[in-house]
Amino acid sequence: MKVLVVGANGQIGKQLTSYIQASDHLTAKAMIRKQEQASFFEDLGAETVLVDLEDRVESIAKVATDVDAIVFTAGSGPKTGKDKTLMIDLDGAIKTIEAAEKAGVKRFIMISSFDTTREAILAANESFAPYVVAKYYADVWLRNTDLDYTIIHPGILTNDGATGKITAAERVDRGEITRDDVARVILACLEKDATIGKEFQIVGGNTPINEAIDAL
After folding, report:
1. 126-168 pLDDT, tens digit each
2. Which residues form the NAD(P)-binding domain (predicted)?
3. Which residues form the domain of 48?
4. Which of 38, 59, 85, 147 has its CA at 20 to 30 Å from residue 52's CA atom?
5. Domain harbouring 55, CATH code
6. Closest to 86 (Cα-Cα) out of 121, 50, 141, 137
7. Choosing from 131, 136, 137, 149, which is the catalytic residue?
């Protein structure tokens, strides 16, 4: 299976690409925005493509024609303004979904925010609310497609080392999870067709990742 990793240069994207390249049955195609980002992925033996998420749908679709799955891990980041949240976390996500449809790629994994319910939007502070709104509508858009989607809602992200263990369910108590463990969860979802059509929250826990995903 060939996987287009959108947002590959992010921390989760880099870890996911590393895991995919270490697999004996998956290969990664890293979608990056700048040529200087390519060396990390080339050292892994991964193919790279230069596409800006603020470009047209057709630009994304063109690089997706030869892949079997797309993982959307892109994000505008906490230091950008509402404009970039709109352009990347909402419009970029929806354009990637539309690109998957144009390219005939059925499998789509979305990395969302921990809670994208209406209640979460109302509870969010002024600076965080636009991000939750963007993720809310991107999730809604994906649910309304015929794609074989999985939506993953990770808790508070940390840069600690992987534990290999999580808590996963439709609703879990808010908590932390390492970016490395999120990448491992994505890998498990790529390998498990039973996750198609499922949406769940993940935080650190005591259950091995594969076991937790199998129990969903």
Report:
1. 888 999 999 999 999 999 999 999 999 999 999 999 999 999 9
2. 7-192
3. 2-214
4. 147
5. 3.40.50.720
6. 137
7. 131
